[in-house]
Design goal:
- The chain is mainly beta.
- It has one domain: outer membrane lipoprotein receptor (LolB), chain A.
- It is built from four helices and 15 strands.
- The chain has a 15-stranded mixed beta sheet.
- A hairpin with a 2-residue loop joins strand 1 and strand 2.
- Helix 1 packs antiparallel against helix 4.
- The longest helix is centred in the first third of the chain and has 11 residues.
- The two termini are 31 Å apart.
- The N terminus and C terminus are likely disordered.
């Protein structure tokens, strides 16, 4: 493979193989400023009639002394359709420890996003590019060939609305290239670095690996409470559908 695959070349490799991903299982090691943890994420792709649906489940837990400081799990889930534009979520949940989960409900027909957090419900306009925090990381796997060619280029900005079940922000990411040392070896990656915004203090950086279908192999973030989190891929398992399967819904 070339030193750096373009997004178009990466998608071309998948298309030529005639394979559709059916399940992605990723394990991450998590490092924070106050301790370490483990994160397991599973993406299931299911074909129903002429449509493909996705279900992403994420389970994070602290280890060692971090477990004493931050007990319990962080469980997130996202589900929806895979369209000819990529992922289109219709449900997102974010639950921390024993607290009531924050929810985002996407009504694409009425173009309304419903957020439920701490017993309060709000409705707001649903922008056509809206993703949730979890589906954002995996959206690039399912972007169509031409859109990937246009959007994922070094030096360009990628703009997207993102919700965490509490609020929604317009995020802007600058795209660059980087060779990254990982437990899977030294990988060529596209790096999406979130630009600073006065209305959104969360910092975020995502490394996507073209050799692994644009899967996120590292994610760094600084949360609203100031906690620095670094997720590095530890293991990955890919299952494929039968060759010749078609994707996705228009």
């Amino acid at each position: 493979m070339p030193a750096y695959l373009t997004a178009a070349e990466a998608h071309s490799t998948v298309l030529k193989s005639g394979k559709i991903l059916a399940r992605i299982h990723i394990s991450y090691t998590v490092t924070t400023g106050i301790g370490n943890g483990e994160l397991s994420e599973i993406v299931d792709i299911t074909q129903k009639a002429d449509a493909h649906t996705f279900n992403i489940s994420s389970n994070a837990q602290a280890t060692g002394i971090f477990k004493v400081i931050k007990p319990g799990h962080i469980i997130r889930s996202s589900r929806g359709l895979i369209t000819d534009k990529g992922l289109q979520p219709d449900y997102y949940s974010d639950q921390r420890a024993d607290k009531t989960p924050s929810l985002a409900l996407f009504d694409w027909e009425k173009k309304v996003l419903t957020l439920r957090h701490e017993g309060k419900e709000t409705n707001e306009p649903l922008a056509t590019d809206t993703l949730d925090r979890l589906s954002l990381s995996y959206h690039f796997i399912f972007m169509p060939y031409q859109e990937a060619q246009d959007e994922i280029q070094t030096g360009k900005l990628f703009k997207v609305h993102v919700t965490d079940g509490r609020s929604t922000q317009l995020m802007r990411f600058k795209i660059s290239n980087e060779k990254l040392n990982t437990p899977l070896g030294r990988l060529d990656t596209f790096v999406l670095t979130k630009l600073y915004d006065l209305d959104d203090s969360i910092q975020r950086k995502i490394w996507l690996a073209p050799d692994y279908h644009m899967i996120p192999v590292r994610i760094q973030s600084v949360e609203k409470d100031g906690l620095e989190v670094d997720k590095m891929i530890a293991e990955i398992s890919l299952d494929y559908d039968k060759p010749g399967a078609s994707c996705c819904r228009h």
